[in-house]
Amino acid sequence: MERSTVIRSPHLSLTKNQERLILRLSQKLERFFPRVVGCEVSIQPPPKAMKKGAPYSVRVDVQVPGNDVHVREAETTDLDSAIRNAFDTANRRLEDLSQLRRHAVKRHEPGPREIQV
């Protein structure tokens, strides 16, 4: 990774373990796409109007040459799980992007109804 990972959590203080988790998961992004330029992680706490059961908002922005991958997860009330889910989704999207760039995705011939005259 050319640039270091940027972690933004303006309204929430993260523990050292959560910061280490984010840094470890951001370094693993290069397994799926070797030319990662940078990674930004933004974390927002649940809205104050909702007392219990509101999910955290975790956004992962990965910069790669030519494209950017943006992931937003807001499904779980556990912050560590939300971070892991966001990075899992980013990994899948980077793997898909890598396969598209390698032309490893099969292209099927158009069917008889898809042929335009």
Shape: globular
Report the span from N to C terminus.
47 Å
Radius of gyration: 18 Å
What's the number of structural domains? Answer: 1
The ordered string of helix (H) and strand (E) elements is EHEEEH
What would the average pLDDT be, to the nearest integer? 85
How many β-strand stretches? 4
The CATH superfamily name is Ribosome hibernation promotion factor-like
**How much of the sequence is in beta strands?**
15-25%
Major β-sheet profile: 4 strands, mixed
Give the spatial strand order of the biggest sheet.
1-2-3-4
Structural class: alpha+beta
CATH class: Alpha Beta
According to CATH, the fold-level topology is: Double Stranded RNA Binding Domain
Which regions are unreliable across 5 or more consecutive residues at pLDDT < 50?
none
Instruction: Identify the CATH architecture.
Output: 2-Layer Sandwich
User: If helices are DSSP runs of H or I spanning 4 or more residues, what is the number of helices?
Assistant: 2
How much helicity do the residues have? 25-40%
Structure characteristics:
117 residues, Double Stranded RNA Binding Domain, 4 strands, alpha+beta, four-stranded mixed β-sheet
